[in-house]
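Backbones bend. Our protein:
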Amino acid sequence: MTQLLLVLLFGLFLVAPPGRGNDMQSLYNARCGSCHDGSVPKAPHQVKFQLIGADAIYASLTTGLMQPNATGIDDKTLRALADFLG
């Protein structure tokens, strides 16, 4: 019985939906990656985002230069994206 429960539990992990990190990576790819992956020299590269920090990224998305790119994205998702990147 214990083995059956372990097999069923493991099976749940195999069919579980992708995590929030995958959602944030997809959002980054769609809205940010074309500039922040190196094609725009003045745009900080994604590898520098941890140095910038989540709070600064969030501020840029909500009140700074990146605000136009964040149009149509709810605040909770913007915070999650900033946390994911920073």
Observations:
- DSSP finds six helices and no strands in the chain.
- The helical segments are 2-15, 20-31, 33-36, 49-52, 54-63, 75-85.
